[in-house]
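A reminder before we start the practical. When you read a complex entry, don't treat the lines as separate problems. The point of joint prediction is that each chain is placed relative to the others, so the output describes one connected object in space. Small molecules and nucleic acid strands, if listed, are placed in the same frame. In the example below there are three entries. Take a minute to note the order of the lines before looking further.
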Amino acid sequence: MERITIDPITRLEGHGKIEIFLDKNGNVENAYLQIPELRGFEQFSIGRPAEEMPRITNRICGVCPEAHHMAATKALDALFDVEPSSAVKKLRELFYCSFYVTDHTVHFYALGGPDFVLGPDSDPAERNILGVIHKVGVDIGIQVIECRKRNHEVIKMLGGRGIHPVAGLPGGWSKSMTKDEQKIILEYAQQNVDFALFSLKLFDDVVLANQAYVDLIVSDAFTHETYYMGTVDEKNLINFYDGMIRVTGPDGKEFVQYPANDYTQHIAERVEPWSYLKFPYLKNIGWKGFVDGMDSGVYCATPLSRLNAADGMATPKAQEHFDRFYETLGSKKSDGRYLPVHHRLATHWARLIELLYAAERMQELAKDPEILDPNVRPIITNTPTEGVGSVEAPRGTLTHHYKTDENGILTDVNLIVGTTNNYAPIAMSIKKAAQGLIKNGKVTEGLLNTIEMAFRNYDPCMSCATHSLPGQMPLEIQIHDADGNLIDTLSQYID
Amino acid sequence: MGAKEKPKLAMYWASACGGCEISVLNIHENILTVDEVFDIVFFPCIADFKVKDLESYPDGYIDICLFNGAIRNSENEEMAHLLRKKSKILVAFGSCAYEGCIPALSNLTTKDATFDKVYLNNPSIDNPEGILPQVVTKVAEGELTLPAFYHTVKSLDQTIDVDYYLPGCPPEPHQIWAVLQVVVGALLEGNPLPPAGAILGAGTTAVCEECEREKGEKTIDRFYRPYQLDPDPNQCLLEQGIICMGIATRSGCGALCPSVGIGCRGCYGPPDGVIDQGAKMLSALASVIDAGDETMEDDELEQKIQAVIDTIPDPAGTFYRFSMAHSILRRVKNGKGDS
Amino acid sequence: MSEQFEPVIVGFLCNWCSYRAADLAGTARIKYAPNLRPIRVMCSGRVDPQFVLQALRSGADGVLIAGCHPGECHYVNGNIKALQRFLLLKKTLSQWGIEDERVQLLWASASEGIVLAERVNKMTEEIRALGPLRWHDKVLGDNGAIPIPVKEI
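Here is the predicted structure of the whole assembly.
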C-alpha cells in the first residue's frame, strides 16, 4: 500500500509523525498519528521531595511550564491538606492569567496562525511567524512581541523566572506582590485587553472575511462531534485556575461535573503499540474506537471544548465575543445554553476569546487590594499523604496526583496532561482531514500542510503529553489481512 | 557563501520540553535582527521544514545549529548525527543537551520500573492485555515504527562532537542574544570565534557572586524544607538552612531563584574546574555543617552529624537535578537487571 | 581451579596518621589482604567525593578513607569535614544502588598498624561477598540490554 509520511509534524510543541496509507485508487485507507517521544516523569519523580514537583514538572513543558507549576502547587495544597488564603489564590490566578495571554498569543501568531495569514499552501519557507511579520508588517509584529515581552516580565516578577517559574509552595507562594509591581501589572493588563481585541479583529479581517477559510472551517472534513471537557466556577463559567471539571455531550447537555479528586472515576487511559502516548476516554461511556458520537467515550479538552462545556465567560467583553462566536457559527440555544460548535478549526477563534478573558480577569485581579497581602508563605506542619491538583492548561485539563511517605518523599505519581486528553480526537481529526483532502492519489505539499492544520488547532504539546516512559520487553504482533481480519498473533515475553 | 546568501540557522529539539525555543523567542524584538541576518532552514517548533529537507542539504550547509534536548532514544541520536553532518557549528544548547537536565533524572530509575508505572500500574490505566509500545507494529495497512528507548539518557557530547555549550534551563534570553551576536560577528565580520569546546553565555564563578543576599559565615545545624521556613529576604538562604545550590553552580542567570526566596537547584551546571556538580555540592554542603566538634566522643559526634544529614532529603535527586548525564557514575546500578 | 574474585580497594590515607599506620603494618611484617591500593593525601579532609566516585567508576570495587582520630587531626578539623562528607556521600551512594560496605571510613593513628590491617581484611571479605562492581562495564556498558543499531545516514 502506498504510504505518505509527514515527519516531523511542525508548528506545535513536541514530536510526532503522520503515516497516511492510500488504497489502490489513491484514496486514504487510514492515517496514524504516532508520538515517538517519552521521558518518564511519573516514574523518575518517585523518590523526590514533593515540594520539588512544581519545579520538576515545569520541565514537562517549556511552553506551558506555568500550567504544570500551578497544577503541582495545587496538588501540594491537597497533599498537605492546606487551604491557601484568598490572597494566595488571587495572586496565583493573576500570574496564571498573564501566562495564558502569552501562551495563547504564541499559538495564534506563531504556531496555528501562519496557516491563515499566509495560506495553507503558501511557501513553507515563509509559512511561519517571521513570514507572518513580513506579510502583516513590522508594526503588528512588534505588537505581538511586546505582548509576549510584558507578560513574560509579569511571570518573572511574580514567579521568579520568565520560563520555568519557581514560586509555588504548598498553601502559598514564595513572594508577595509589591505596590510598584501592581502598578506595572495594571498597565500591562490594559494593554493585554487592547491586544486581545486587536487579535479578534485581525481574525475577523483575515479569516472570517475570507470565504475560502470559512468554508474550510465549517467543512465536514474538520468537524467532529464528541464530548467536551473544561473547568467551570460555581456559575458554570470558565475558570482556568480552579473549579469543577465539567463534561458536556455532543448534544449540548451536561454529562457530568466532578471535583479533580474524583478523576479516576471518570477517566481511563488506553495503550496502542504504535505510539508512546496513551488515549484517555470517558470511563462511564466506554471506549468504542476512534469514533464520534454520544456512545463514544472520546472527549476533547481545548479552548473550543471549554467554551462548549461552559455556560459563558466570567468577564463582560469575553462574554460578548462568546455570544457572537456561537451566533456566527449558527448555534442555537437549548435549555438556556448554546449547542456546541463541533468545527475543530473554530478552536483558533475560541482561543482568542479565552485570550480576552484572561486579559480581563488579569485586570480584575490586579485591581483587588487583597492582591498586595504580604503574608503569602505559610509554614506547613501537616503530615502529607495524598493529593490531586488540577488546572486548565491552555491545551486542556491538567491533573497531577501525588502520594508521599510521612516525610513528603514521593511514593507514587500520576499525571493526565492537557494534550493527552486530546490524542484520540486529534488522531480522528487527522484521519478525517486526510480522507477528505486526498483523492485519487493527488498530493501536494500544501495539501499535506492542510492535513497538519487538523491537529494544529488543538495547539498540541507533545512534550506534555508524553511525559511518560515505557519499558521495552513484551512484543506482540497482530497480523491483519486486507479486510482487517486478525489472522495471526505473534508474541514474546508476554505472560 | 555567496554575496547575497544569508548564513543558515537551525534549531532542533531532542528529548526536550520546548523551553529553549521559548527562550529564543524571548529575545523579543531582537528576533527581527535574527530574521534579517539568518535564513532558518530547520526549526520544527516554528517552521515547516521536514527531515527529508534536512537530509537533502549538503554537508556543512547549516552555519549554526542550536541543538537542545537530551539523547533519550534512537531518533534523538540519529538526528544528532544528521545535524552534526549538516552543520558547521553545532551548539549544545541548554541543560538537557549540555548535561542531561531533568530527563536524565530517569537515570536514577530503570526502564522496567518506568514501563510498569506508565503502561501497567497507575490509577487511571485501562490495559488488561498489558499492551506496550513497540519499535515495530504491524497494522492492517503496513508497518509502523517507533524509536527505540535507550537504557540511559545521554548528553549531546556523549553522542557526537560538540563545538560549544550554552548552559541553563533554559539559557537566559539575554545570554542567548549575547552569544548570537558573537556568532553573527564571526560569520559576517570575520571576528574570531571562541575556542572549541567553550562554555558560552555564562560566567566562570558561582551564582553566589550574582546573588544580592548578605553572606556571613556558614554554620548550619539543621536544614529546612522550603515550606518549613519563611526565610529572611536579605540573608543567604543556605545560612538559614534552606538548601541552595548556588555554591556549586555556574553564574550567568542573575541568581533569579534566590531572589524570590527559593533555593537554586543548579540549572546552569557546574562552575569552571568541576567535573561532577553533584559531588561538589555534596562536598561543599557537608563542609558547612556545624554539628559538633572534636572534643565529643566519636559516637556522639557521628550521631549529631547524622542527625543534620537526615534533614537533607534526596541528595542524589537534588544535587544532580540537572547534571546527571555528566556525573561520574551516570546511572543507578541494576538498571539492566543483571548486576 | 576457578579464580577467586579479588576485590580492588582504593585507599585514601592521610599523611600524618593512617598512611603511617599502613607503613607500620609493613615494617612490622603484619600479614594482611593485598587488596588495598593506597594513595597518600595530606589529610582525610582533602578527599573530594569526586575521587571516590572516580575510583568506583574506573574499576574499584570499594574505597576506604582513613584519617586521624577526631581531636588528633594535624590540621585541627580536616577529619571532621571528612566525616561529614563521608556520611552525606553514603546517603547519596545508596540512591545510586552502591552497597553500604563498598565505601568505608576508618580512624587509625600512626601507631595503629594492626587496626588498619584488620579493617582491610574485613573490608576485603565483605566486598568479596558482594561481588565485583565493574561500574563502567556492568552498569554503563551497552547502554541497554540490547545494543541499539543507529541508522546509517
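Discuss with your neighbour: Residues 109-151 of chain B form one domain. What might explain this?
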